[in-house]
Amino acid sequence: MKKKQISDYRIASDADSIRHSFLDNLYFVQARFPEVASHNDFYLALAWTVRDRLLSNWIETASTYYRQASRSVCYLSAEYLTGPHLHNAVLSLGVEPQIRHAMAGLGLDLDDITAQEPEPGLGNGGLGRLAACYLDSLATLQIPAIGYGIRYEFGIFEQVIRHGRQVELADMWLRSGNPWEIPRPEINFEVGFGGTTKHYTDESGRYRVRWQPQRHVKGVAYDTPIPGYRVPTVNLLRLWNAQACESFNLGAFNVGDYERAVEEKIASETISKVLYPNDEPMQGKRLRLEQEYFFCACTIQDILRLLLQQNGSLDLLPEKFAIQLNDTHPAIAVVELMRLLIDVHDMAWDEAWRLVRKTVSYTNHTLLPEALETWPVELISEVLPRHLEIIYEINRRLLEKVRTRSPDDDALLARISLIDERYGRNVRMAHLATVASQHINGVANLHSRLLRDRVLRDFHTLDPERFTNITNGVTPRRFMILANPALTSLINDTIGDAWTRDLERLQELEEWADNPGFQGAWREVKLGNKQALAQTIFKTSGIEVDPATLFDCQIKRIHEYKRQHLNILHIICRYLEMKRGLHTDAPARTLLFAGKSAPGYYTAKVIIELIHTVADTVNSDPDVSDKMRIAFLPNFNVSSAEKIYPAADLSQQISTAGMEASGTGNMKFALNGALTIGTLDGANIEIRQRVGKENFFLFGLTESEVANRRAGDYRPRERYLNDQQLRSVIDALADGLFSSGDSTRFRPLIDNLLQHDHFFVLEDFSAYRACQQQVDDTWNDPTKWIRASILNTARCGWFSSDRAIKEYCERIWRVSPVPIKQNTAT
Ligand SMILES: *Cc1c(COP(=O)(O)O)cnc(C)c1O
User: Fold this and answer.
1) Residue 365 is a catalytic residue
2) 634 Cα–ligand 1 center, Å
3) What are the domain boundaries of the chain?
4) What is the CATH number of domain 72-83+120-366+429-470?
5) Which of 276, 315, 544, 651 keeps 20 to 30 A from 47, CA to CA?
6) What is the pTM of this model?
7) Among 286, 247, 291, 292, which residue's Cα sits nearest to residue 265?
C-alpha cells in the first residue's frame, strides 16, 4: 500500500485508515488510551472519525454551492427531531462494513457504540420529525438547502413513569459534548427586543422609521452536517444559540453593578435555553415569542448576508432563495424581512413586499382552532414595537384590497384580518404567513381541502392558485434501512437495492406477496424484530411479552384527538368479556403504548395513568394473562420509535376524523409491514387508497359526519345508555375496578366523555370494537395477514419524503439538484 498523507487517512474509507483515525481521535481529542476509555470516549472517538469524513464532503458541497450560486432552499423550523447522528452518517457514507471491521479489530461493537449517543430531542413530535426527514431527502436529492432552527440547551423532557404517572426530567443532551455541531462564533447577529420606534423624515425628504430596541441578544450559529444517502452532498443545519452581547454589561460594570451585569447575561442566554414541550402553541408566553423572533431575526440576517456575499443585489432574493415556513412558528420572519428591506436597506414598501411574496411559502400543520398560533397585540407591541407597525401596514393593505373587491362586507373583513378582535386583540400568525406567501400548502389531501374550505377559506377565495397540497413523507433511510436491517436485507435479496433511493420500486415486491417461501422469510423478519422489542420492553418496564402474539401498537404524543382513550376503553371491554368467557378464539395480543404528554395537559396525563392502571390489573390477572398483556414504553423518541415501528403487526391510527393533519407514524408503520386500523383522517385516507381497502381496517365517522354531529346535538350519554358493552366499560371504570375501588380517580375523564365527548370516543366505540373483531379474524388466517403485510410495504413507497421533497422542489421552490464531485482518498 502506498504511504498515505495525514489528510488521506483522515478521510479514507478503508478499515485500516478508519482504525488509525479512531485511535488518533481517542488519543488526541479525547486524551484517552483504549485500556481506560469509557463507552462515551469510544463513541466520541468514532463520532470524530466519521465526522472527518463528512466534513471533507461538506467543504466540497459548500464550495460548489458558493461557485454555482444556484437557488437554495431555506427551511425554517422551530423544531428538528433528527434522532442520533452517528449510525445515520455511517449509513450515508456507505462505510458500515469497514467500520464494523475496524471496531471488531479493537474488540468493539458498532451497535454498542451507537447506542451511547444521546438523541438531540429538539422537537416535540411529528412536526420536528418531518423537518428532519425533509433535511435527509434534500441532501439525498442533492438540493442546495439550509435548515434553520434553535439550538435548545434542553430539548424535549425525558419521560419517566413513577407510580403509573408521567414525571418529566430535564433533557441534558449536551452534557457529554456534541461532536456533530461546529460552533461558528464568527457567524453571529444581534437581535433587538423592546424599546421604541422613531418616525422622521431624512435629508432627502423620505419618510423613515428607526427602531431603537431596549436590549440586544447575540445569536451564534452552530452548524450540524446533514449527509445525503450515498451521495457526496452534505447540507447544513444551522441552529442559533442565544448569548449575551459583548456590550451587554458595559454600563452596569462601569457603575460597579456586577450582579446586574450577570443577570443580564443570564437573561440573554435564557432565550435558547429550553424547548416548549407543548404540541400546541403557548398562548401569551413572552419567552416563546422572543424565541421565535430571535431565531427568525438571526436567520433572515444570515440569508441576506449570504445573498450580498455572493455579490447579489437584494432584488435577486427570490432567484437565490426559497424560504419555507414550517408552520407559523417562524412567521415573524416575513415581518423581519420587510423591516430589514425597508428600514435598513431603504427599499420602497411595494418592492420589498413583492420580494417577500416571491420568496416565502408556508406549510400549515393544524386546523384545530386552539392550536392556531395567535399573539396578543399588547405583547407584540412591547417585545417588537416596529414589527407591530409593519403588521398593521400589511393588514391595512390586505383589508383595502378585500374592501375593493367586496365592498360593505364587514364580516369578511373581520374574518380575514390579521387581527382577531373577538377576545381582546390578537395577531393571527396563520393569516400573516398566508398573506406573505407565494404558496400555502397542507400536508395531506383531506387537510389541504379543509384548509381551503374552512380555516383559510377567505384567502383561498382571494387567490385560489396559491393553495396546494403536498402529502407528508418519511425517510426510508432511517425508518427502514437503519431501523429494520433484517427487512432491508430480505428486500435487497429479492428485488435489489434501488428502492432505497426510489421507494416506489417496493412495488416489485407485489409479485412475491403470495410466494410461500417469501412469506416465511417475511414472517421470520417480523418475529426477529418482535423478539428484540420484547427484550427492550422487559428491560425498561419489567413486563414479559411473547413475540408470538399480535403486536398492537399506538405510539405518538398523548392527545385527546389521537384517542388513546378509545383504545384503552376497548381493551377494558375485551378484558371484561374475556373474564366472562368470551373471545376464546381471539389471538393473544401485546398492547403497546408509548408517548409523552405535555406537562400541563391534565387529561392527557390522566390517560397515561389510566393505561398504567389497566395494565396493572390485566397483566396480573391469570385469567387473561396469556391472552392480553399491556405495556407502556416510557420516553418515546426517535431511538425507541426505530425499535417499535419494525416490530408492529397492527398500527393504531384512530384520531377523530378531520383532526390529524397528516400523521407520519402511520407511514412508518405501513412501510415496515404493519396493517393499519384507522379512521378516514389525514394521510390514512391516502394509505388506504394505495394499499387497497381489503388490506386496511377502516372504522368510524367520516370528517363530514363529525362536522354534522358537532353542528347538531350529539348526546354522548345516549351512546352510553344504548350500548351494553360501552356501559359495562364505563361502569367498571366508574366503580374503581382499575383503581383499587377508588371511584373518584377517573370520574372527571368519564364525566367529560358522557357530557361533551368532544372527540367522539363514545360515538365511534362500537364501530371500533367491530373492526377489532375483523383484526382478530384476519390474524387467525396467517397467510392472509402476511400477504396484507407484504402489500402494505410494497404499496407505500409513495410515502417517501423523497417524493414529498420532489413535489416541493417542482411546485413550490423551483429548485434543481446541484451534484457534488466525490472527494476521493485511498
Ligand atoms: C413519527 C414520529 C412522530 C409522529 O407520529 P404520529 O403517529 O404521526 O403522531 C412523533 N414522534 C416520533 C419520535 C416519531 O418518530
Assistant:
1) yes
2) 14
3) 1-68+93-118, 72-83+120-366+429-470, 550-808
4) 3.40.50.2000
5) 276
6) 0.97
7) 247
